[in-house]
Amino acid sequence: MDVGALTVWMWSFREREKLYDIFEKIAGARFTTSYTRIGGLAQDVTPETLGIIHMFINELPEKIRECEKLLNTNHIFLGRVDGVGSISKEQAIDLGLTGPCLRACGVELDLRRANPYLVYSDLDFNIPVYEGGDCLARYYVRMAEIKESIKIVRQLLEKMPAGDVKAVQPKKVLPGKHQVYTKMEELIHDFMIVNFGVEPPQGEVYHAVEAPKGELGFYIYSNGEGQPWRMKIRSPSFVNLQSISVMIKGAMISDIVAVVGSLDPVMGEADK
C-alpha cells in the first residue's frame, strides 16, 4: 500500500482477519489478547480451535503464492523497492538492527537458534537470509519467514502434549476464574497477586525473544517487591527506526515511504 498498490494489502488483511478470529477463540479477544501468564496460560485451547488452526495453515501457502505472483515480477513494485533503502551489514550491526532488517543484510541471527528458549531447540526451521540490505531484500525475508512460521506451527500442533496449561503455585500464578468465584483461598490469592504483584527474589535479569520486528528484550531489576525497582524495554521498532537516516541518504522523498514501510515499525512499541 505504501508504494501505491492496494490489492495485496487487502488480500493480506483477509488472512489477518482469519488470524484474529483464531485469537478470539483462544483468548476471548481479537487484538489485546492478555493470554499469557506468569506460570502458564489463561486457559487451554479447544479441539475445535486446533482444527481451525490446521485449516488456516493448510490454506495459507496458496494465499502466499497469490501475493507473490502479483509482486515478485511486478515492474512497478520492483522499481520502488529494488536498490532502495540499502544499508550494509556493518552499518546494520553498528546501529543495532535485529530481526528481518538484519537478516536482509546477510546476517544469520535469530534468537530462537542463537539463544533457544521454550521449545525452539526441538523444532526444525530455516532462518531466511538475503543479501542486499534494501527494501526488496527485507520483503523477501518476511515472505520466507511466513513459510517457516507455517512449518513451526505445524510441528507444534503435532507435538503439543495434553495436560495442564498453568503451574499450580497459588502465590505466584493466578488461579482460574471458576476457582476465584467458588473458593475463598483462591479469591485471596487472586486479590494479592493482582494488587501487590508476584514477589520475585532480589536481583537482575535480562531476557529477549525473537519478536516479528527483531529482538524484544526486558531488563528487570528486582528488590523483592511486586513491582520492578527498575525496568528497561529493548523494543526492536525503536532501535530499527534510527537506521532511516542511513537508508534514505541520497534517496528521493518518495522513497522514504517505502523505506519506513520496509522497516515495519509499530509506533506504540517504539514509544514503549
Jot down its keywords:
single chain; 272 residues; mainly alpha; Cytochrome-c3 Hydrogenase, chain B; three-stranded antiparallel beta sheet; two-stranded antiparallel sheet; 51% helix
What does this structure look like?
This protein has helices spanning 7-27, 47-71, 75-81, 89-95, 100-103, 111-114, 135-159, 177-182, 184-196, 236-241, 244-247, 253-263, 267-271; strands spanning 36-37, 40-41, 203-211, 214-222, 230-234. It is mainly alpha-helical and 272 residues long. The radius of gyration is 21 Å and the shape is globular. The two termini are 26 Å apart. The longest helix is centred in the first third of the chain and has 25 residues, at 47-71. Helix 2 (47-71) packs antiparallel against helix 7. The model has no long low-confidence stretch (mean pLDDT 94). The chain contains 13 helices and 5 strands. Helices cover 51% and strands 10% of the residues. It has a single domain, classed as Cytochrome-c3 Hydrogenase, chain B (Orthogonal Bundle), CATH 1.10.645.10. A hairpin with a 2-residue loop joins strand 1 and strand 2 (40-41).
The CATH homologous superfamily is termed: Cytochrome-c3 Hydrogenase, chain B
Which percent range fits the helix content? Answer: 40-55%
State the low-pLDDT regions, or none: none
* Strand adjacency order, main sheet: 3-4-5
The beta-strand count equals: 5
Structural class: mainly alpha
